[in-house]
Amino acid sequence: MKYHVLPQSDPEVFEILQGEAVREAEGLELIPSENYVSEAVIEALGTLMGNKYAEGTPGRRYYGGQTYTDRIESLAIERAKALFRADHANVQPLSGAAANLCVYASWMDPGDTVLAMDLSHGGHLTHGAPVTFAAKAFNFIRYKMKDIESGEIDYDALEATALEARPKIIIAGFSSYPRQLDYARIAGIAQKVGAMAMADMAHIAGLIAGGALPNPLDHGFNVITTTTHKTLRGPRGAMILSKGIAGNPLKAPEKTLENLPTLIDRAVFPGLQGGPHMNKVMAIAVALGEAARPEFRQYATQVLANAKVLAGALMERGCRLITNGTDNHLMVLDTMTSFGKNGQEAQALLESAGITLNKNAIPDDPLPPFKSSGVRLGTPSATTRGMKEQEMIRIAEWIVALCKGEADPAAVKEEVKELCAKHPSPSGVVERG
Ligand SMILES: *Cc1c(COP(=O)(O)O)cnc(C)c1O
After folding, report:
1. Where is the domain boundary, 264, 291, 318?
2. Does 125 map to a domain?
3. Do 249 and 172 share a domain, yes or no?
4. Which one of 81, 146, 236, 255 is the catalytic residue?
């Protein structure tokens, strides 16, 4: 993309932007929560739509001048509903963390109980990790895997816990769980105990939109929260999707599942947020338009195919993967058992060879989170760049050789750069116009 004004008006900022552009172009991105957006998304994000305050929802705003903000938000909402087979969508949450908080606030009072996946078994910080504010406001209890070798969730224990604790919400969702969840089973348990079933699909939304993974809304879930910037390949942002039709957000409705869309809209604004970022909403609309195209379905399928090959190639070379593989786009590699290196050491070593991934706890990890016994890696970004099975095998070879101390990071860095040059990022380059 050519920048006409910024290089002159603020060369210091432009130089930083160029640095990041080169880093992204030349490095291999394996962090499973990241991706490269299209230039169309970048263009939509960098627009004057961000000038406008649009508190409220389309047709029901607090300020005047909403002709185009109403149009763009309605378009984003309609595209989100169609793509995820939802009846209602709120595209205003500023991030995944905010979206989750909005759902909690829509349905619960302080002190209420939530049942969610254990953090070290794959759950997310925003599902009530002790360091979060949500953990102070609500009572989070946990479910885990039954067996770390297969990755199967202990559904019987989940049900027993739910029957005993009567949570208000049961959350299905994860950021480092490499297997599929049995949505119908979890939704059934939620129904049995009168809980709301909430799926946080931040990581896998693009794979669901692309038809490669099942959609929790098709299997009895009441609500989905998701980020828009991970596999969905949009701007940083989030959405809340649900079944049911929203009523007048100006009137507080009763807390029933039928009223959930209205409760959610009210929790987003004025409950927790102020004005939505309309430039971001515009970029979400663009990304959702892209996600409805046939190429996106191919991408989603290829993300999974690549992950299977990468996981297989790592295991063939002696790596221990948590749950012995993956059904989705990510995997957790136990670097401590595989190479005698903690996650922090492995992350730093690979970064020196141009390969970016992140340290990650393994189930019931004895090491503190800042060190961790493993790393998490995934295929969304590499797949967006057009890399396929053959490249996955090379990546596995590099990772293993580096972690065993059998390869020179500087030499691998050059090879990584060469491979990346053959697969340019769709975010494009940053140039002076
Ligand atoms: C990434 C993620 C979030 C948080 O999203 P942010 O946009 O970083 O706030 C929430 N839940 C899950 C499962 C995630 O993976």
Report:
1. 291
2. yes
3. yes
4. 236
State whether 264 and 212 are in the same domain.
yes
**Do residues 238 and 205 touch, judged by C-beta distance below 8 A?**
no
Asked which of 229, 260, 291 is the last residue of a domain, the reply is: 291
* Residue 100 CA: distances (Å) to CA of 6, 94, 159, 165, 302: 36, 11, 23, 21, 29
Give yes or no: residues 199 and 347 share one domain: no
Residue 176 shares a structural domain with residue 198: yes
Residue 60 belongs to domain spanning: 45-291
Residue 213's nearest CA partner among 318, 307, 98 is 307
Q: Is 226 in the pocket of ligand 1 (CB under 6 A)?
A: no
CA dihedral 106, 112, 118, 120 (to 10 degrees): 80
Classify residue 22: in a domain, yes or no: no
State the pLDDT at residue 247: 83
The CA-atom distances, in angstroms, between 348 and each of 107, 157, 333, 352, 373 are: 42, 38, 15, 6, 14
**227 annotated active-site:** yes
Q: Are residues 145 and 273 in the same domain?
A: yes
My answer on whether 257 and 320 are in the same domain is: no
Index of the ligand 1 atom closest to the CA of residue 98: 9
**What pLDDT, on a 0 to 100 scale, did the predictor assign at position 251?**
84
Cα distance between residue 359 and residue 373, in whole Å: 8
User: The whole model's pTM is what?
Assistant: 0.97
Catalytic residue, chosen from 161, 227, 326, 335, is: 227
Active site residue 36: no
Average pLDDT per run of 10 along the chain, which is 433 residues long? 96 98 97 98 98 97 97 98 98 98 98 96 94 96 94 97 98 96 98 98 98 98 98 98 87 92 96 97 98 98 98 98 98 98 98 97 93 97 98 98 98 98 96 93
* Catalytic residue list contains 200: yes
